[in-house]
Write a structure and sequence with these properties.
Length: 351
């Protein structure tokens, strides 16, 4: 029997043996498949669709501007203590809710408008650059600048004036929200930091007994704390006012006072200085009677009360303000005016 007479089924094992162990291997399993063919967007081929996208972008930027205006209006319109019910939040501050909502809308619309602009109106052609050395050649730098110019042209920033101008409006208006927030940090101080409750004719009141002080109440070597007449611990702004008006009084032998102005502003060696340290505003309470020095317990700034309250050690920036005092017709110590300079840290010297 010839091989031609053998059935096809009988030749199959021989064929399998011939190709046994052979596996089909692709040429390069890690080959770069490349980018898929670019498919144009509807905005690329239909100018009406492009204009619709531009109007959508402008709408979002305009909505951002309106939300910023709403933020400022909410700040003015809603009182701080107004509470409203909003489902599902429950009872919330109307001011906080309005500020948060309008600020979120203003931010979201700027971002959403920019993203929509990039996805629908800017060029979406994929650009591939091979890796290159870190130091660019002049040709590469020129190519980068050219790519930037091409990107600016492709973005339509100069051609899409409606979207561009509303973007500028949203970005210009949104920072006003920050101005309002900063203004909300507190009322403007105006001249409040420069003035205290001391005034001409106000008696010096012992802060412990709340009784007016006479010269004979102040002994040599003692330290007495005082405040202006008319102040009370029950006043709603007592802590604010005492932080500027707190006074310490000592009696020094007139011969030991070195500063002539201090001597002129005293009464029989009784001198009155601000109790507030000129470093960061801590209250001074430690007095050394032999040296006439007072020490701030916070950062150890030391002042000489016999020499105009000047700084002799520590980080304080300037001398303690002195209060000019005298004795009235009834024999009580009284102020002849306010402090000559603001008390506390030397903010005013920076002006």
């Amino acid at each position: 029997m010839s091989t031609q007479d053998i059935p096809e089924e009988e030749n199959l094992p021989a064929a399998q043996d011939k190709h046994a162990g052979e596996v089909a291997v692709p040429d390069d399993p890690f080959a770069d498949p490349g980018l898929p063919p670019h498919e144009p967007r509807i905005q690329d081929i239909d100018e009406k669709a492009a204009r619709r996208s531009e109007r959508a972008v402008a709408f979002m930027f305009t909505l951002s501007m309106l939300a910023t205006v709403g933020f400022i209006a909410s700040f003015v319109a809603f009182p701080v203590d107004k509470i409203v019910y909003i489902f599902p939040l429950g009872h919330v501050s109307a001011l906080n809710f309005a500020l948060g909502t309008t600020l979120a809308v203003a931010l979201f619309c700027i971002g959403a408008g920019a993203v929509h602009w990039a996805r629908t109106l800017m060029s979406d052609h994929e650009i591939v650059h091979e890796r290159h050395p870190i130091e660019a050649t002049p040709e590469v730098r020129e190519q980068v600048f050219q790519d930037f110019r091409d990107g600016a042209a492709d973005s339509g920033f100069g051609r899409r004036k409606l979207a561009r101008n509303t973007l500028f409006g949203a970005l210009a208006l949104f920072p006003l929200s920050a101005v309002v927030l900063l203004r909300d940090l507190g009322p403007l101080p105006e001249d409040k930091l420069r003035r205290s409750k001391w005034a001409k004719g106000k008696r010096l009141m012992n802060q412990n007994t709340m009784q007016p002080l006479r010269p004979e109440d102040i002994s040599v070597g003692s330290l007495t704390f005082a405040m202006p007449e008319g102040m009370s611990e029950h006043d709603h702004d007592f802590q604010t006012q005492i932080a500027k008006a707190a006074l310490m009084i000592v009696r020094i032998q007139p011969d030991n006072i070195k500063d002539k102005r201090e001597l002129d502003w005293s009464h029989e060696g009784i001198v009155a200085f601000s109790k507030i340290c000129t470093h960061v505003g801590c209250p001074i309470s430690l007095y050394e009677q032999q040296t006439h020095h007072v020490l701030c317990p916070c950062h150890q700034s030391t002042f000489d009360l016999a020499d105009g309250g000047r700084v002799i050690f520590g980080p304080a920036g300037h001398a303690l303000p002195q209060l000019r005092i005298t004795v009235n017709d009834e024999g009580y110590l009284e102020a002849m005016g306010d402090f000559a300079e603001p008390v506390g840290p030397a903010f005013w010297e920076r002006g």
